[in-house]
């Protein structure tokens, strides 16, 4: 079984229930991840009670949401999708739009389990937009985690790390949500970040985040078992052989707690992969055989395909070449049936390397050509999915801001392409770009007078330059975001002058949009930014009226872009607004 399958497993995190109001559905939320079979039985009992007695729409929807997640945990993707589609439509009909992102996430996860990435991506983007709009950090964290996991599998690491860092940063906000629905446990958010760093070969940092997941108090039952297997593979790649063995033993002791056959089969498949990597061929064969029997019985075609691949590698290691080639052909047939170009590329790689070692270079070359075609199709599929995703985000931006306002573009990064096709495309694009630039430069641009002054960079370009300087110089930098929608626009010019008078010479203030002001503070930590915000609040007092105005604060991290820094400041600001609203309506801190 491919290690990437492990990244598709749900992970659990920390929620201090002792600080929250007692609610049986809260405890059931944790059980959905830790013991999904038992949780599903309880959910069925609740559904029977709802049918026999009057139940609020909220409790009915939340029970359905928990059922949807329990089905996902048990590998019942189609059933989960059906529940999510029905209940999302019901929430819309009841005008409970703030509940819809949770069911969209469940649908997306189900489609990912069925390898339907094109269907899942727009659902995730829609869920993130709704979670932002209706201030649902529980949904936002889960959607960001899932999208970061998906981008990791697609080698789109820059986008993945932006989503996962944001998910980690805003996770504490789920404790301030007025209404609980369902939330991803924090240990799984950490583990997903560990998987990303493992994919980028940063094994020590991958182990660091995985350790944080392991030490979460909510890492119990299935959750702990999944993370232990994850940690065993990462520790092995981090050259911690003895530690990897210890983690593997701990994971095996928890196998009896997984009483669902499909989930048990996935666990054995991962154990087989670990044993194979450690050279324990007989153990690997034993584990993968157990998995394959269940995958066949349960009609888990994609899992069976990957298990065939691993068993073929085991047969190659045992010098059983005829059996190995037969298994590889079976895996290829399933890959073609499911149209999984990424898996096919890997299968052709294994076979081409085998024939090259045998000296059959004609066969190796033919398989390399097939590998190239599979890589090409894989890239085209990912590129198409990305284009759809970016179009969806642009459409959301167009509907959320005035047409005459120009915002900083969202940070994007191209996919890390397969070397053969990617190199070809990059060279072609580079040559075309150079030719186009040369033509435009010669035909449309007059010669520049060397004595004429250079054009003044735009305010956003100045901010980008300061971010770049802070990263290169290794000094702290913070950003303040002020939402001025509660202030009179006629007062904003005077207000900006008041704010500027209280800032340092090196600080930068710009009008980012109609209702937003950005202040960049070089050589300033997060704590220093909080102190600056307190000082600036005094200048805001005459214009605030009955509405409070909060600064959103974000401190620069190494992977930040201007867009991600602004996004985190916006989330920080929303958290303060929600906390203030909760105190106003409930008279006490959020639960």
Name the CATH homologous superfamily of one domain.
Tetratricopeptide repeat domain
Rounded to the nearest angstrom, the radius of gyration is 27 Å
**What share of residues are in beta strands?**
under 5%
Distance linking N and C termini: 42 Å
Walk me through this protein's architecture:
Strands 2-3-1-4 form a four-stranded antiparallel sheet, sandwiched between helices. Among the domains are: 26-181, Serine Threonine Protein Phosphatase 5, Tetratricopeptide repeat, CATH 1.25.40; 459-586, 2-Layer Sandwich (Alpha-Beta Plaits), CATH 3.30.70.270. The longest helix has 40 residues, at 361-400. The chain is mainly α and 591 residues long. Helix 4 (57-73) packs antiparallel against helix 5 and helix 5 packs antiparallel against helix 6. Helix content is 69%, strand content 4%. The two termini are 42 Å apart. The protein is built from 24 helices and four strands. It has helices spanning 3-7, 24-34, 36-52, 57-73, 77-93, 100-113, 117-133, 137-153, 157-170, 186-199, 203-214, 221-237, 241-253, 261-277, 281-297, 301-317, 321-338, 341-358, 361-400, 419-444, 459-473, 492-502, 526-544, 562-586; strands spanning 477-483, 508-513, 516-522, 551-555. Strand 2 and strand 3 (516-522) form a beta hairpin.
